[in-house]
Design goal:
about 260 residues, alpha+beta, Aminopeptidase, six-stranded mixed sheet, disordered C terminus
């Protein structure tokens, strides 16, 4: 049975997912930051969460073809315990006991059959709400503190092409609109043809060059980003009719 997006659900990340998110994103993060360990990626996920970034995660039941063969991450919290030992904050005995407890609890949870594999994720940041974005845009949104930035969207390579990216984008747009967004922006690599098609089909488009430079400069100074020379900045007015149409399609359509 082939993987489809039918059993994939999208919702906010929990603290138990930080390890799985790091495992999912560490490859792309290493490209942007010149090398990053999985532990560093996990710490980044924790930090973003504490700073108010909303991470929406696509998950599939362990029994679903989308999750078949994917590695099950270590017990949540185990990397914290290992780091405390490395820093000398706990004794070897305390480390071993705590790690054994975590692994035992994790095995029990896995045995219930409730485990869901992380197959994709996207971050949603309310830039103006955080004071990040005092810049004029060619829409009323910027003065209304309602500009949102979508970033770090990734879908596991083994599960691409079945509509999971659509589900993630639809959930991100729904979250932004529910929080009174009027404008959403994102960066996408010029050579990422599938992502370019996805975003432009949803209504994202380029804006004038001067505005793009200001937006990129502000994003680069405040949040994680990629090299602007490799990316297009795309902006969407959330009030456009085709956004709603796109979200309706995304829940039914399993095309790429």
């Amino acid at each position: 049975m082939a993987c489809t997006s039918a059993a994939v659900a999208v919702g906010p990340a929990t603290e138990q997912m930080f390890g799985a998110l790091a495992q999912l994103r560490v490859g792309e993060l290493s490209k942007n930051f010149g090398g990053m360990t999985q532990r560093e990626a996990e710490l980044l996920e924790m930090n973003k969460h504490s700073q108010g970034t909303v991470c929406l995660v696509a998950t599939a039941p362990a029994t679903d073809p989308c999750a078949a063969g994917l590695p099950i991450p270590d017990a949540p919290g185990s990397s914290n315990v290992r780091e405390m030992l490395a820093l000398g904050w706990v004794t070897r005995q305390a480390h071993d006991e705590r790690l054994a407890d975590l692994q035992r609890e994790w095995k029990l949870q896995l045995a219930t059959g409730d485990y869901r594999a992380v197959v994709g994720a996207v971050d949603v940041q309310h830039l103006t709400d955080s004071g990040f974005f005092p810049l004029p845009l060619p829409t009323k949104a910027a003065t209304d503190d309602s500009l949102f930035y979508l970033c770090n969207m990734v879908v596991r390579e083994e599960t691409r092409g079945v509509g999971i990216g659509k589900k993630l984008l639809a959930a991100a747009l729904a979250h932004a609109r529910a929080n009174d967004a009027q404008t959403v922006c994102l960066q996408v690599r010029r050579n990422n043809e599938s992502a370019q098609r996805l975003y432009r089909k949803a209504g994202f488009s380029e804006t004038d060059t001067e505005t793009s430079r200001n937006v990129i400069r502000s994003i680069t100074a405040t949040v994680e980003t990629t090299d602007e020379s490799e990316c297009d900045l795309l902006i969407l007015n959330v009030g456009q009719a085709n956004v709603k149409d796109f979200e309706i399609q995304s829940s039914k359509d399993s095309s790429p």
